[in-house]
Design brief:
single chain; 293 residues; alpha+beta; Beta-Lactamase; 2 domains; five-stranded antiparallel beta sheet
Amino acid sequence: MDATLPELQPGEPPHGMERSFRALFEASLDAVLLTAPDGRIFAANPAACRMFARSEAEIVRLGRNGIVDVADPRLAIALAEREHTGRFCGELTFIRGNGDRFPGEISTALFRDPNGELRTSMVIRDITERKRAESALRESEAILDRAQALAHVGHWSRDLTANTVQWSDETYRIFGRPPQTGPMDARTFFDAVHPDDRERVARSIADALAGIRAYDVEYRLLRPGGTIRHVHALGEVVSDRSGRPLQLFGCVADITARKQVEAALRASEAELATAQRIAHVGSPATPCPGEAP
């Protein structure tokens, strides 16, 4: 290594402990750097060399500004926080030897070496794969939200222990509320159910939790503006090993359009039946064969 680690403070356990710390430094899977507040780098462990695709001598020569993207606006915030509090934990953009930039999670702290010199430690973890996974998850969630919006179907879950409710954006829209507004609980849900349907919905939930039948119910919603929507909800209970219900989750579909079509069809059928009865009553009797008309 091009620079040695600081010696232990006087009075601390002797060289065996120092060797242990050095072994941890060398074997760490995360990049570890010994630096100064002004950006100088004194030592880099093998993981750091692999991460930055540089030798320790190169990393030491380049200093902080050679491995951290100085254009990242979070850098100034990180340095200020470390100076003020003595430590910083967060994310920054780093630079590999080939110039590629990558996201890293950093934990850094100020300390004094045995000579009283102010030093800093930096532990860095490459989070490229995690960021890719997060991006893929956000993309999947966006696709799901769009699909739910097109189908007018939302999903929901209710934590039976905490009595909290989580809705997807489309569920909020079905209930006539802006997505992700205000705390959700069972009472908020029941307040949205039409008063004439609340007892039936509560009974359906109780039957599902008791294992009598699955949660499968149609009911009316009373939106904040006073409009009424018809919905069909399906749910499933998740229980622990002892059979105690922990969660109820499912989906809800806005079936208002279907209900309107069904109502219009019934009205048309009723009108047709009435017209046929009137026509039958008002028509002249048909003579039997052989009789004079």
